[in-house]
């Protein structure tokens, strides 16, 4: 078996050779680069997905099927491989692995991904590494594996996902190809598969009899548009949504989508700001969500990820209080350095909820959120979700079903239960977050203006800066301070000190070949100027 597999792998390596001199690390959300440079890495990720599945054999299903324990122990856990470059332009693509609970690949495995990436096409060297890894992981080639593959609407996606499939199959892997899916859908599906579908089921949104306000959605010309059509049909009695940038005309993420709206703080192209009460944008693979509207003074007003944290935390706290559950519950909000200072201030000082700050990347936020009974995490870019502990879920359910409890307590528990059902706990999911947001606004009788008025953002500016080698920038303290190049942090500190309530940081992107600069201050002009000054110093010190 080993010889045949080795031959097949050698043939695949010949078919999709690694370009010379290429260096690719497992970044913020997997491997990402220009699509035409990626086929070779798909081979490595297919192999790794298979190994991960073999290692995770039986760990999940076994608990639910004790009767079949001996049979089940050999059933591998399903691992997801999502081919997408999410918010990046159409010419990019990428791939990331999803662990059995639907979460991002365990970070201890990123090193194997990077090791495989660093190896060249020599079949003997690669095979040698794979054999060593299998010994270390205590798995064998003949062990079964299951890998679920899905991809976004990029032209390059079908070929790249096919390479993942062919590579994984060399390692005795059963492939489930879901083809076109949003990223969060695959996360959720992997979790449901491994839980024998006990985890997931179709959720009904039941916020009450009221109709929800009309909403115009910019689908970034991505996969989300197709999935929104299904939602549109299913919810037509309750909720009228209009879909723009549905992929029939514009290009993926080009001057549209959540990243564009957040970065440039303006409406996307392809969505006329006419007479809708509110609008939102998702991104190319539908894991981010940003809301906006035109206020009475005809100004564009945006509600980003920080706003979802505040809204969700307010709703959950309120319902926990009404259900008489609040005293026993540890709630926390997890943010990154990009969170607007006013949001952090509001959550800590007005809501009395602790805030943790972690490095960029959902994988970091998700991990931290597990420390709480209710861990609410959102990146300012609109990527996030809420995690509930099993213990709290059980308590919510028992209040809901306790006939001796007053009706208002049971109702609050029921509403929490429905919220938990709507939300996608495996990862940030734009469509699930959208439904949860609409349900909460309706239940709390809150308009979009009222939601915005909960606190006032400090003006901020984000820039993308092209540099020779972005790895020259190194950071610490959840990316809020730089450790390299020398003197960069001192210069930033000096610049920041000139601006009231000024704050700025820089970090290398893990998904694009750029450095990101963030600045905030009391006026937009100051935030813009501070960002620009920091940009100049970054360019100067990375020449
Ligand atoms: C991915 C990650 C996010 C991260 C974003 C930008 O988003 O999932 O957690 O905030 O990249 O990362 P960076 O600043 O390192 O480029 P997406 O929506 O592209 O998958």
From TrEMBL:
Residues 211-289, 304-444 form the Phosphoacetylglucosamine mutase AMG1 domain. It is an enzyme of class 5 (isomerase). Its cofactor is Mg(2+). Substrate binds at residues 379-381, 507-511, 516. Keywords: Isomerase, Magnesium, Metal-binding, Phosphoprotein. GO terms for molecular function: metal ion binding; phosphoacetylglucosamine mutase activity. Residues 485-536 form the Alpha-D-phosphohexomutase C-terminal domain. Transmembrane segments: none annotated. It catalyses: N-acetyl-alpha-D-glucosamine 1-phosphate = N-acetyl-D-glucosamine 6-phosphate. The keyword Phosphoprotein applies. SUPFAM superfamilies: Phosphoglucomutase, C-terminal domain, Phosphoglucomutase, first 3 domains. Binds 1 Mg(2+) ion per subunit. Pfam families: AMG1_II, AMG1_III, PGM_PMM_I, PGM_PMM_IV. The active site is at 86 (phosphoserine intermediate). Catalyzes the conversion of GlcNAc-6-P into GlcNAc-1-P during the synthesis of uridine diphosphate/UDP-GlcNAc, a sugar nucleotide critical to multiple glycosylation pathways including protein N- and O-glycosylation. This is Phosphoacetylglucosamine mutase. The lineage of its organism: Eukaryota, Metazoa, Spiralia, Gnathifera, Rotifera.
